[in-house]
Amino acid sequence: MAMVYQKGRVFEKGKRIKKWYGQFRVYRTDREGKEVERTRKVVLGLKSELRKYEAEERLEGIVRRENGKVGSAVAARQTDDAVTFDWFVKEKYLPMRRGQWRRATRDKTEFEINKYLIEEFKTVPLRTIGLFELQTLLNNLAEKYSESIVKHAFVNLRSVMKMAQKLKFIADNPGEETKMPATRPVERPTMTPGQINSLIRAIENPHDLCLMCIGLFCATRTSETFGLQWKSYLGDRLMIHSTAYEGELYRGQVKTDASRSAVPIPDDIMPIVETWRRLCPDSSPEALMFPTFGRDERKGQKVPRRAKNFLKWRIYPIADRLKIPRGASHVSSDAANPGHGSSKTRDHEGCAKRLASRQHQDYR
Fold this sequence. Notes:
alpha+beta
C-alpha cells in the first residue's frame, strides 16, 4: 500500500553551490495492476534560498502528489512508465469496446485510432499525457484533415482517457477539458440534379436502377440499402430489419433504434421498385432485394453485394461514360430526399417521374 504519509529524506549536496535534495518512494501500478515501488530523487531548491524546514514542506507536497493524495482527497495511484498509450488502447480499451460496435463501426474506429492517435502517442507513458498534449494533437489534425476526421479523433481521444480514469490507470482525466478545434472546409464532389438525371436515365438494368433510386431518393444508409430484404418492402414504405457490410448480412442489426422507423418511398419511385419485384428471381420475404452470388465457402448462396464492387463494376462505367466524377457517384443518404421541398428536390422529383414513366413503358 502506498505510504502517502511518508516524510522522505531531505539532504544537502554540492561543493560550490549547495542545494537541498529530497529522496522518497513512489508507488506505481504496472500492466498487471500490481503495485510497484520506485525511489525518486528531486531537487528542492538552493540552500541559500530555503531553510531546511521549508525544503521538508516542499518535499512533503511532492510526496503527496506523486503517491496519489492531495490534501484530504485520495486519488487513483499513478501507473508506471511501462503503461503506454499504445499498450492501454490495445490491451484494455479496444477489448472492452469491441463488443459494443457493429463490424463497420469497429473497423473504421480501430483504423482511425491507430492512424491518428496511436501514431502520435505510441510509446508515451499514459500518466504523462496531459491537456496540452491532447489539445495540441487535435489542433495539428485540424490543420490537415476534414471536420469528420478531427471530430472522430476528438471523440475517440476523450473516450480513451475516460476509460483510463475509470480503470484507475490515471487519477485525473485531461480529456474532459479538450475542445473541438476549428477545421478547414473540405470541398467534396457532389452530383448535380442534372448529373443524377443523366446517370439514372442511363441505367438499363432494373436491379441496378431500383438499388440506385432507393439509395438516392429514399435517403437510406448504404448498409441499410444493401441489407434490404423483400419483407422490408411494404408498397409505399420500407421497414429496415437488417444491415449489410462487406458482403455480410447482419440480421436484426441496425445503427440506431430510429433506423427501424418506416422509410417512405416517393410515389414516382414505387413503380421502379415494383418492376424489380416482378422481375426478381426470388422475392420471398426473407430473400435479399439486391443479392449477388457467394464465393468460396458461400458458393451457391445469395449474399449481399459489396457497395464498392457494385459501384466499381455496375455504376462507375456508366458514370465515366457520362463524365461524372467517380467520387460524386456514391450511393449516399446525402443525396436529395424528395420530402425536403427544395428547388433541387423538385428537379429530382421530375427526374423520378420520367424514370417511372420509362420503366412502365419498358416492362409493361
